[in-house]
Amino acid sequence: MYRWCTDEVEPQDRFDYWREVRAKGLFGVTAELAREHRADFSGEFSLRRVGGAGLVELKASPYQVERSKADIADAASDSICVYQQLGGGGWFGGMRSNDDFAIENGRFATSHTDLPYRTVPLGAAGFHLRILKIPVAGIPGQDRRVRDLTAKPFDDPALAPLLDAAFAELGELAGEHGAAHAKPLVEALACLALIERGIVRPGGRRGQYALRVGRLSLARRLIARHLNDPRLSPAMVADWLGVSLRHLHMLFEMAEKSFSQTVTEQRLAQSRRLLREAPERLIADVATACGFESLATYYRVFNAAYGLPPGDFRAQEAAADKVTGG
């Protein structure tokens, strides 16, 4: 992962460096800000490659961004962009007034990279967004309409939660294990965006696969939100997803772990965090907070997974912290 922050540049040079080196050189856009506001400018971003796509998270004080025809000619990328607003709101549009729209916190927009647009944040907090840039060449089933996608908000109420879940899961992937799961997520995100734009049929092979990947991501996030409920069951999650119980189990057949294995793994991971971060907390309270139906069940499952009981794990972590000065 590549990270950069304006703190690395002298204050009087920060916006000029951001405009010429980061905005134009890295992202292929033109950045503008009134001279009297440049001394107060700040910005930071991260960039990493995931599943053949580029994932960017950007935060910056307000300025105007434009991707003009000249910018496109200098740095064409032939990609689909999926944007998620992470803070405040933003105005976004093409070069015609009827293309304009505002995007709220948490909402998505999609576009092809090589069409002109302008964007500015709506509030004093500035930009905070996540961008996934997916090369068209890496999207199965080429369609010339992909290159005509002007910027548009993602409004489908049924698809938006799937996009949100898959996007969040992609952002959390790390290491070699994550790399193996990134490509299917990227392809699913591209297809979900193209379903919403009317280019991919939801009932076709690609559309059905993307919907299954999105629903699986959403199912995992629903599990994570309700871990502390010992009654958590496949039927409950299927109901929240709006699918049959059979369909839910079919989703987990795509994954490495079944529904019950996923729940147990997440509960154990949460319990390990609590054991480390709250050493004063009773182990029985940790078990209850993570949704285990009994203390005996928690001890049995924890010992089977890690080869030692929770108390010994906590002592081991405390000893390691002393050695490292943590």
TrEMBL record:
The protein's name in its UniProt record: AraC family transcriptional regulator
InterPro entries, sorted: AraC_XylS_family_regulators, Homeodomain-like_sf, HTH_AraC, HTH_AraC-typ_CS
Domain HTH araC/xylS-type positions: 217-316
Coiled coil in keyword set: no
Residue intervals passing through the bilayer: none
Superkingdom per UniProt: Bacteria
This protein's UniProt keywords: DNA-binding, Transcription, Transcription regulation
UniProt-listed SUPFAM superfamilies: Homeodomain-like
SMART domains given in the database record: HTH_ARAC (SM00342)
The keyword Transcription regulation belongs to this UniProt entry's keyword annotation: yes
